[in-house]
Amino acid sequence: MKSYLDLVQHVLDNGTLKKNRTGTDTLMSFGYHYKVDLSKGFPLLTTKKVFFNSVVRELLWYLSGETHIRNLRQHTKIWDAWTSEDKNWEVGKMYGYQWVNWEKFTEDKETGKINKEHINQIEEALKLIKNNPDSRRIIVSAWNPSVLDQIALPSCHAFFIFSVVNNKLNCHLTQRSGDIALGIPFNLACYATLTQMMAQESNLELGEFSHYINDAHIYVNHIDGMKEQLKREPYPLPKLVIQQKPFWELQFEDFELQNYQHHPVIKFPVAV
Fold first, then answer.
1. Residue ranges of the domains in the chain?
2. Does domain 2-258 have CATH number 3.30.70.1230?
3. Is 156 a known active-site residue?
4. What is the mean pLDDT of each run of 10 residues along the chain (272 residues)?
5. Staple partner for 238: which of 82, 221, 253, 260, CB 3.0–4.6 Å?
6. For the purposes of burial, counting CB atoms within 10 Å of the CB of 249, is it exposed (0-12), middle (13-18) or buried (19 or more)?
């Protein structure tokens, strides 16, 4: 996929060597942006194998609102590095919890009692897409400053916005930090899947996915693998088929990836 390979080449050619909290230096580029036309195929990398089953499992985990990975890790271990059995596999109120259980506090003016409600931001976004598609406020935020010291990882993909144009659903993601080798391919596929789910629920066509990455980086121990990807000729993009079911009833078995041709896996170590 050209847009991803262009990102890789840009950072390899122009990136700045920078230290970070993990102890493994990165080549980074500030403020990188690209777009993908979702109507031209499902944007899953073909220059290496990306495990689409794990992409779907992770997305459904987000939508569940769970604050642990006890169920997720029965299917994929992609989040194991961020918690442990000693912590009962808890990760805190991050990502999906914020998507579907954003906490809202109000004060009862008569009693002074503080009441807590929950906002399902995904459901609210769906309502706006269906009932007020010209809205410029169809936003979902995973960045909640009040929980940053209580979660396994402050949300990398911080917030996203939907926009309906000419009966097509577009999605823009703002990401504070992006691991180009491991994270970005998953993020791209995850939000493309979510956008297709939302479009199907709202009887809209697929538009574009727009992605802004504040700190787009390649870890120095990933550079050789990234260069190997650049040597590989991309295959045509696959197609994603989602069963015609209500949004909140979709399960793992309802997602089918068709005609996925890919080059072999490239293994990259995870920087934690």
1. 2-258
2. no
3. yes
4. 95 96 94 98 97 97 97 95 94 96 92 94 98 98 96 95 98 97 97 98 98 97 96 97 98 98 94 78
5. 260
6. exposed
